[in-house]
Amino acid sequence: MKALILGAGEAFDESFPNTSVLIESETNLLLDCGFSVPPMLWRSGARVDALYLTHAHADHFFGVPAVLARMCDEPRRDPLPVVTQHDVWQRLRQVLELAYPGSEAKRTFPLVFVPATAGTTVPLNELTLRFAPTRHGIGNLAVRVECGGRAICLSGDGAFTEQSKALYKGADLLFHEAYSFEQRSSHAHVEDVVAMAVETGVKRLALTHIERHVRMKERARLEALRYDTGIAVLLPRGGERIAV
């Protein structure tokens, strides 16, 4: 597996596209797709075989209408599995209709809803997906994607929970939101995330969704995490690929 990083930013970052990762395998799985992600995906030239959405905030799924519209324009014929929570699926359908009225009837390929719930396992061809809740303002399910004995995890948004810690255990690569160095009710604390990754035996930790002012003003503090923590800490940018 490889992870193509399409974006690593938070919702309102002018320099970093919204956090989104394309898992590249025999099946290419897009993890989240916020409103600033589509151009990064299109420039990569990569295909998308399936989609996973962590939760229904705009910077995590408002890019989907444009991606699907371009697929129709190509045109795509193969079904597109959409793995997500039931309420996210319902909101996605509403957003698709608002973005392009009547698009469902005109779509050149079917969308296939695949339910994701905490503690369950979803097989997706050679990939296996598992899910756990984080602590966020709305329901968010982190995901673990496994293939050939390797695992890539993405937190979506929110502070980690005991369930998500168990999900991340021993992962080869974890993309985890690390919003700030301050405690927040619905976002993760940078140093807590690093400590959690060390505790759970994560091999590489990619810090994403860092608040834009923190990214600018605390650059030295963020960079120090690469050397002072005993774990491989990455500060990824859009366009990078990481082999797992």
Task: Describe the structure using short key phrases.
9 helices; single chain; 244 residues; 14 strands; alpha/beta
Q: What is the CATH class designation?
A: Alpha Beta
Distance between the amino and carboxyl termini:
5 Å
Order of helical and strand elements: EEEHEHHEHHEEEEEHEHEHHEE
Q: Which class of secondary structure composition applies to the elements? A: alpha/beta
Please report the number of helical segments: 9
Radius of gyration over all CA atoms, rounded: 17 Å
Largest sheet: 7 strands, mixed
- Given the C-alpha coordinates, what overall shape results? globular
Mean pLDDT: 96
The share of residues in extended strands comes to 25-35%
Binned, the helix content reads: 25-40%
Q: Architecture in CATH?
A: 4-Layer Sandwich
Counting structural domains, the number is 1
* Side-by-side strand order of the widest sheet: 6-5-4-3-2-1-14
CATH fold naming: Metallo-beta-lactamase, Chain A
Extended strand count: 14
Low-confidence stretches: none
